[in-house]
């Protein structure tokens, strides 16, 4: 996955001079704030919806908290950054250039993001995962659009995945 993202970055950023990917790790207070606000807004929607559609169930154990910081770092580096470069920096960015409409590009990229998670089952296709990932994609896309940084959207993404693994299943 990381190799594919790196090749995509090289192809779009270097060969095609594709600007605006946001492939940098400079974070300021505003970017972290936007990431946290969007995480909170997503959680306010996703937790009740996840329970309602039987996508999540409460599964907290105190011992999981000890691993949460390491889990966050691993998810951030190995899952969130590569996926955010691909889905926000490249795909959403490309949709914005093609459609010239930010809301349309946000929705299209979020649907593509959700579709990429259809195979996270069982069952396969996993339509509940598709729905939840598509909604998450909206919030990740909002962070990227407001900050111009995939690192900021990757923070939101890693928080979602970390909280999910620590509290739910």
Descriptive overview:
- The chain is mostly helical.
- The chain contains 6 helices and no strands.
- It has helices spanning 2-15, 29-52, 62-99, 102-115, 127-147, 150-167.
- The longest helix is centred in the middle third of the chain and has 38 residues, at 62-99.
- The two termini are 24 Å apart.
- The mean pLDDT is 90.
State the main characteristics.
mainly alpha
Give the integer mean of the pLDDT values. 90
Q: Ends: how far apart?
A: 24 Å
Largest sheet properties: none
Q: Please give the share of residues in helix.
A: over 70%
How many helical stretches? 6
Unreliably modeled segments: none
Query: Compute the gyration radius: what is it?
Result: 16 Å
Shape descriptor: globular
The structure class reads: mainly alpha
H-E order: HHHHHH
The proportion of residues in beta strands is under 5%
The counted number of beta strands is 0
Give the topology:
Elements lengths: L1 H14 L13 H24 L9 H38 L2 H14 L11 H21 L2 H18 L2
Helix pairs in contact: 1-3, 2-5, 2-6, 3-4, 3-5, 3-6, 4-5, 5-6
Offer a concise description of the structure.
The chain starts with a helix and ends with a helix. It is mainly alpha-helical.
